[in-house]
Amino acid sequence: MGFNGPDTLVVVVMMKTKYSLIAAFLLSSSVMAATPVENIKLMQLYLDKNQLEKVEDLYDEEEDSLSKNWMALERLAISFERREKFKEAIEVYRKIITNFNKPAHDKVITTPAGSLEASAYERTKLPLYYYKLAFLNTQLFGKTHEYSPDNERIRFKKNAEGFIALSRKVKVDDGDLKLLEELLQEKMKRDENMQYKGSWYATLDVLSWQDRVILVSNGTGEKSNLLSTAIGSCVGLGRKWENVKYEFDLEGCFAVATATISSENKAINYQQSSVSVKGVIAGPGMYFKTFSENVLLGVHLPVKYRQGDWTNPDETLYSFEKLKTIEMGYFLQSKIKVKKISLRTRIGKVFPNPGSIWSIGAIYDF
Q1: How many CA atoms lie within 13 A of 196 on its CB side?
Q2: Distance in angstroms (rounded) separating the CA atoms of residues 238 and 234
Q3: Residue-wise pLDDT tens digits, 237-247
Q4: Most CB within 10 Å of its CB: which of 105, 202, 294, 297?
Q5: Could you write out the DSSP letters of every residue in 173-220?
Q6: 325 near 306, Cβ under 8 Å?
Q7: Which helix (H) or strand (E) holds 284?
Q8: What is this structure's pTM?
Q9: Class of domain 197-365
Q10: DSSP calls for 208-253
């Protein structure tokens, strides 16, 4: 073919440019048509290398095409599962079932277990997806705690049980399903143990304490400190709320004791024995089940009211500053439980009295 001048050369160049553009377009179209398959292979490569974020980034970039392919969605779900993004994995598996397996899924749901034939689902991966959904919901239920919303905990548990039932219906290995059921039962037992349960109990303690009694001279106003040491018993009733880790209680007891009282200095000579002292000790407390459910350590914050029948040596010369007092203090306490009976010891202080207050006694749980 010859050229007959510049015009002919321009036409040839234009035709070559046109064919080049058409070829580039066709090549580009061919590459674009292969993109989903290549991207799925790339997603699998990232999974094999455990580069999970790259799997999700690639899916986000090519979502329009990859969201229409169950193989891409399955790899995305696996990536979410490995990263413990269980809610996201559940959403993807549900999407695969709804968009790609709906007829078989509906057949499994509506057909009684005894009448369901394997041909209804054997050409699908529904057994795998049901098991995955059972497993993921079990994991989510296992991660709930006492502050998790109740509706969320109930939903995860109900979904796990539902997909275990569907998995059993399509002949998923029963050993795997029993393991999931055991995990659910263990979690429910832990949750039950963490719930506080209330009950009543009765107490009987032998206790001893000291009171500072002040004798005042009516003439001079001079104060003399007297020290009273009492020992007696305290009978009471309490209410407790406990779980597997802690026990909180509120209790009170009525104390009857005998005291010996004497002066603390030589300015006055005062001594009396077998003095009747009555009182009430009440307050809140708690225990930590540090070692076991039957060995408890804790604290108690008592409020003590007492009244003593101390004898005034001469009512014209002296008077007691306070025959009745209300005081506060603390106990360090321990308890050993044997069925319904517990042995309790306490030691502490009630302010502003000198010395310590201690008790040892028994508790009966109703």
Answers
A1: 11
A2: 13
A3: 999 999 989 99
A4: 105
A5: -HHHHHHHHHHHHHHHHHHHHHS-EEEEEEEEEEEEEEEEEEEEETTT
A6: yes
A7: strand 271-292
A8: 0.67
A9: mainly beta
A10: EEEEEEEEEETTT--EEEEEEEEEEEEEEEEEEEE-SSEEEEEEEE
Q: How far is CA 231 from the centre of its chain?
A: 44
Per the omega criterion (within 30 degrees of 0), is the bond before 302 cis? no
Reading the block at residue 3, the tokens are 């050229």
CA distances from 2 to 12, 20, 101, 264 (A): 11, 22, 64, 137
b/e string for 150-170 if b means 16 or more Cβ within 10 A? eeebeebbebbbebbebbbbb
Q: How many residues does this entry show for the chain?
A: 366
What the block records as the tokens of 15 is: 């035709």
CA dihedral 132, 134, 136, 140 (to 10 degrees): 180
Q: What pLDDT, in 10s, does the model give residues 41-53?
A: 999 999 999 999 9
Interacting residues of 114 by C-beta distance below 8 A, sequence separation 6+: none
Tokens 């597997």 label which residue? Answer: 244
Give me the sign of the Cα torsion angle 171, 172, 178, 183: negative
Q: CA 45, CA 5: separation in Å to the nearest integer?
A: 57
Residue type at position 8: T
Tokens (6 digits) for 224 = 């003399």
d(CA 236, CA 4): 124
* Cβ-contact 303, 279 below 8 angstroms: no
pLDDT in tens, 75-109: 999 999 999 999 999 999 999 999 999 999 999 99
